[in-house]
Each structure stands twice: as C-alpha cells, then as structure tokens.
Amino acid sequence: MRDRHIKWLLRISITLLGLLTIYVFFKLYSIWEPFYLIAKAILIPFLIGAFITYLLHPVIEKLHSTGVPRTISILIIYFLFFGLIGYGIYRGIPVLVNQLRDLSENFPKLSMSYTNWVESIHDQTDRWPVGVNERIDTMFQKTEEWLALTIENVINSLKGIFDYILLLAIIPFLVFYMLKDFDQLKKAGWYLTPRKWRNEAIQFLKDIDHSLGNYIRGQLFVCFIIGLLAFVSLWFFGIKYPLILGLLIGITNIIPYFGPIIGAIPAVIIAATMSTKTVIIVIIIIMALQFIEGNILGPLVVGKSLHMHPIIIMLALLAGGEIAGILGLMLAVPIIVILRVMLVHAVSLRRQQSQH
C-alpha cells in the first residue's frame, strides 16, 4: 500500500513539474521566438508536402499494381495533381481577385441592402413575443459579427500566403522526391525509431492510417465536388460572387454537421442583399447539395470509416471551435481519431506490461 502511494505521489510530482516546465517555456517566448520562426519556415512546406505525399501515395500504388512502372505512375499522378491545381489557380485567381475587389467596393451598398432586409424581417416579427424577437435580433447580430471576423481572417490569411510564396513554391519539388524515395523514407524512419518501439510504432501508424486515411481522402474529394457544384449552381442562377461562396461552401463542408450551416450563412446573406426570391433559391441549392452529399457522395466515397459515435464527434467539434475557431473545427475530427488510437495503444501496452 505504501509503495502504491509513493508511486502516485511520484506521478503527481512529475505531472506538476511538467506543467511548470511548459508554463516557464511559454513565458520565455521572446527568447526562443527567432528559433521558432526559422523552424516554422522550414516545417510548413515540409508538413504540407508530407501531407500531399500521404494523399497521393495510395493512388500511385494502385496505379502501379495495374502494371504501370512506378516511376511512370508517380509522374502521371504528380502532373495530374499539380497540373489541375496550377490550372485552377491560373484561371481562378484572377476571377477570385476581381470578385473580392468587387465585394470590397460594394460592401457598403450590400450592407445597406442587408440592413433593410433585416429591418423588414424585424418589422414582420415585431408582433411576436418579446423573447422570440430578441433572440432573432441576437442571432442576426452574432451572425454579422462572425461574418466580419471571418472576412478579416480570410484577408489576413491571403496576405500571409504571399509572404510565404517562395517557401510554398518548393512544395511540388518536395512532394516529387518524397514520392520517388517513399520506401527509403520508410526505412529511415524504421532505423531512427528505437528497436523496442519499432513493432508498436508500425502498428500504431497502420491503425491511424486505417482509421483516418480513407476518411481524409474521401472527405477532401467530397468537399471538392460540393464546392464545384455550389459554384456552378450559384453562377447559373446569377448569384453574386459564386466563386467566393463556392470556395467557402466547399472548404467548410469538411466540418461534420456544422460545416454546411457555416458555409450557407455567407451565401444567404449575399442573397438577402438581392431579393427574397434569391434567398429561397440559395436555400434550395444548399439543401440539394446536402442531400447529394448525405445520400450519394458521403456513403459512396467516405462511408463510415471513422467508427465513432456522433456525440463524440460533436463534442470534439465544440471543443475545437472553442479553442481555435474554424481551424479547430476542421482539425477536431482528425485529432480525436489520433487520440483514440493513442488511448487504445496505451491501454494495450499497459496490459502487456502488467502481464509480464
């Protein structure tokens, strides 16, 4: 009993010491900030390149398994991937810049139209109970604040991308060499891992890939299709800024449950500055897109690869949104899946140690 108390006391002491170390570490930010900026400049292209390599490698292996030489498989997938992205940037950036400029120039006019629309709704609901009316006003106010903050963050992000344009330009080269030397990278990782952890590390990575890999690839493909369909639909019905809204709908669609609502809000607000009929059209488009995703694309492409209860996913999304906003919502599901795999492996390892 005494030994057990000593062990628990030791664990608590180590935990407190670790937390104190982390606190002191962040208090000394001004000292290690230059090293952090250098590391970030190096790691960002490397991590993005590694992520793209992770997405493309299974496709290359599948093409290679059909009899196409590996080098040719790499070149085909590589040039298709970056060729399509390059073409999309070449054709899309001028349109996106023009729409952003037009949105910025017409923002006061759009704001006035939106205000008139909100006031008309307020007048129509003025006879409703006071509590309901106040809740509607609060909802519109929070939506406006969220949209203003989102636009500001997007503009700042676009400015930040131009700051890193040279670093991002080396990503295609990193991806090519990572794909080409994928087996050598695996061997290097094998030898760098301590011998006693190798088997466990391999199984851990396999479990993460099995739980998360198909979900990420499928979800990104679904987001691309939904964003493309949204752009075409909005453009066809003459909705303003279809490319901006299509991008927002496609990007936010990666967030389970809440994503479609977040992506729909800017589209509905833009439509509200045009007419009530346009608002109805946009709502129908959003509903149709969600029907296509939920009943066709989702089950067909993504499936049920997560094997997690919806309540757990929702709690993870709420926590991610509270911690890091939109980015936290996007990363919440992958992080919770990795944490689940880590927990399962930690429990399994603990059982093995107790048996020995």
Automatic annotation (TrEMBL):
UniProt xrefs under InterPro entries: AI-2E-like
Family label: Belongs to the autoinducer-2 exporter (AI-2E) (TC 2.A.86) family.
Source superkingdom: Bacteria
GO biological process: transmembrane transport
Predominant location category: membrane
Pfam (any one): AI-2E_transport
Transmembrane segments: 9-29, 35-56, 68-90, 161-179, 220-237, 243-272, 279-298, 310-343
Keywords: Membrane, Transmembrane, Transmembrane helix
Name the record gives this protein: AI-2E family transporter
Localization annotation: Membrane
Any Gene Ontology CC annotation: membrane
Membrane-topology annotation of the record: Multi-pass membrane protein
Record carries keyword Lyase: no
Keyword Phosphoprotein annotated: no
